Amino acid sequence: MFERFTKDARAVVSGAAAHAERAGEAVVDTDHLLLALLDREGSRASFALDALGARDRRDSIARGLATARRRGGLSGAEADALAGLGIDLSEIISRVEQTHGVGALAADSGGRRGRGRMRHRPFTNGAKKTLERSLRIATGHRDRHIGDEHLLLALLARPGTPAEVLAEHNVTYDRVDRVLYGEPERDAG
Amino acid sequence: MAEATDLVERAGDRDPRIGLRAVVALRRLAERLEAVQVRGARQQGWSWQEIAEELGVSRQAVHKKYRGQ
Q: Pfam family example for this protein (chain B) (predicted)?
C-alpha cells in the first residue's frame, strides 16, 4: 500500500510519528496524523484546508485535540452520551486531576512514558484503519495514488476526535470532497 | 452545546443508539479511570496482587495490562 503513497502522504505519515515523539507518546494516533496534515504546504490537503479556512485556525484545532486527549480520548459525542445518563465528564476529569495531577486521564495506556525512546513507534489501530481507509477512498475516486488529501478524507470519514474537532471548524467530509472533486459525493469510503 | 441538549432530549425518546453510545462511553471512561487508579496504587507501593484483589481479577491479568507503566 505504501508504495502508492505520494511524497506528501509519506510526509504526513512520518510527520505524525514526529508529532508523537515530540509529545513523548509511544504510539502514533489519528490526532498526530491530523497535526502532520496541518503542517503540509503546497499539497492537495493543504489546498483543501486553506479553501475551508482551517489552516489559519491550526492553533485552535491543535487545542481542540489537546482538550479531547485530556478527556481521556473520549469524544464530545461520548461526553454528551454520558451527560444523558447524568454523568458529568468534566466534573470527573477535574476530580481525577485534583488527586492525580493535570492530564491524568489523558490516553496513556500501555506504559508509553518511560519507554519514550523507542525508535519505531507503532501506529494505533485507529491510525492504521485511517491509512487503509485512505486507500479505499483513493480507489473510490479512481485516483492511482494515495495523496495527503485522501488521508484527510479518511480522517473525516471515521468517527473520532480528529473528525469532531475538524467539524467544529467547519471542515467535514462533504465539504473537503466538494473542494477537491467539485460535485458532492456520497461516502466514497 | 445546543447539540448536547438535543441529544439529552432525544435520550427520552428511547433511541437505542443513544443508550448504546452511552454504554460504550462508560466502558472507555472506566478503562481510563482504571489505568489512573492502578498507576496511583503502584506509585504508593501496592503490589500487583493487592491491586488485582481490589479489581476482582487475577494478578496476571493486571500485571499483563499495566506492567511497564
A: HTH_23
Q: How far apart are CA A147 and CA A45, in angstroms?
A: 8
Could you tell me how many residues make up chain A? Answer: 189
Contact A114 B69 (CB under 8 A): yes
CB B67, CB A111: distance < 8 Å: yes
Average pLDDT, chain A: 88
Give the C-alpha separation, B61 to B41, whole Å: 16
Which DSSP category does A14 fall into?
Answer: H
Q: Is the pLDDT of residue A143 over 70?
A: yes
Query: If you average pLDDT over residues A24-50, what whole number do you get?
Result: 94
Contacts (Cβ under 8 Å, ≥6 apart) of A35? A15, A16, A19, A62, A65
Option in A78, A104, A105 nearest B21 (CB): A78
**Smallest Cβ distance to B25: which of A78, A100, A104?**
A78
CA distances from A145 to A14, A37, A82, A137 (A): 18, 17, 41, 11
Residue A90 CB-density burial (10 A; 0-12 exposed, 13-18 middle, 19+ buried): exposed
Report chain B residues touching chain A, CB-CB < 8 A.
3-4, 7-8, 11, 18, 21-22, 24-26, 28-29, 31-33, 35-36, 39-40, 66-69
Give the pTM.
0.73
Cβ–Cβ < 8 Å for A45, A151: yes
- pLDDT bucket at A133, cuts 50 / 70 / 90: very high
